Amino acid sequence: MKLDSSVSAIITGGASGLGAATARHLRSLGVKVALFDKNPETGEAMAKEIGAVFCEVDVMDEASVDAAFAKARAANGQERILVNCAGGGRGGKTISRDKQTGEIIPFKASDFEWVLGLNTVGTFRCVVKSAAGMATLEPDETGERGAIVNTGSVAAEEGQIGQVAYAAAKAAIKGMTIVIARDLSSEGIRINTILPGIMDTPMLGGLKTRAPQVYQGLAASVPFPKRLGAAEEYADLAVTMLRNGYINGETVRLDGAIRMAPR
């Protein structure tokens, strides 16, 4: 896909971290960008900084997502690009014990459902709505109508102790990639998924000052290079997936060769 001012993109979780880096990269190429995010303060500031449209949205809420797509399309036209970076987790073992009493504590099914709702269902909801819009477009000169990039995690393959919900949610994103690619092939729409490792995003980057030894330990656990991944490296891979028309149905690790230990 040619990335220039004739193309518009929607990025969920676009106000910070991986989404913000991807938005900056696409704007540097002239692509029109709409940022979907729950945080209006950071979202509006980011949109103003890079010349994008901000849409306050909760990807777990159908009406909110519909309204955001309508706003983005009114401003920038029908998108040919969707990058899904919205996500998060709630930790906990399948069952654990109270350290004082030995009482068995089960992981709440409601928390499990919440994590899947945010990561898996939220991602799929946006994929469906974006693909339906892309299908109304005329194919470009290569026969392509659009391209989608989802965000999984290395936890999809090596979930650690206490990550049962997050690992399941990200494994589902990985698992649905090839199926969606096949489903959308007749429409000329591609989809790929990135599985980031330990990334230097706001969630972990704060450890530099709060717990520098923990941060340094995380960096040392990466085989090479011995550091956390940069959000810009995620953005670079996402843009490559969008540009290269023969990358389809793939899940690609971005992790410095790390393989996560049980804990």
Q: How is this structure best described in words?
A:
This is 3-hydroxy-2-methylbutyryl-CoA dehydrogenase. InterPro entries: NAD(P)-bd_dom_sf, Sc_DH/Rdtase_CS, SDR_fam. The strands form two sheets. Strands 3-2-1-4-7-8-9 form a seven-stranded parallel β-sheet, with helices on both faces. Strands 5-6 form a two-stranded antiparallel ribbon. The chain contains ten helices and nine strands. Helix 2 (40-50) links the parallel strand 2 and strand 3 (53-56). It has one domain: NAD(P)-binding Rossmann-like Domain (Rossmann fold). The mean pLDDT is 96. With 263 residues, it is of the alpha/beta class.
State the end-to-end CA separation: 40 Å
Radius of gyration: 19 Å
Structural class by secondary-structure content = alpha/beta
* Residue share in β-strands: 15-25%
- Count of DSSP E strands? 9
> What's the tally of helices?
10
Fourth CATH level, the homologous superfamily: NAD(P)-binding Rossmann-like Domain
- Unreliable spans are none
Q: What name does the CATH topology carry?
A: Rossmann fold
Shape: globular
Secondary-structure element string: EHEHEHEEEHEHHEHHHHE
What's the average pLDDT?
A: 96
So, CATH architecture?
3-Layer(aba) Sandwich
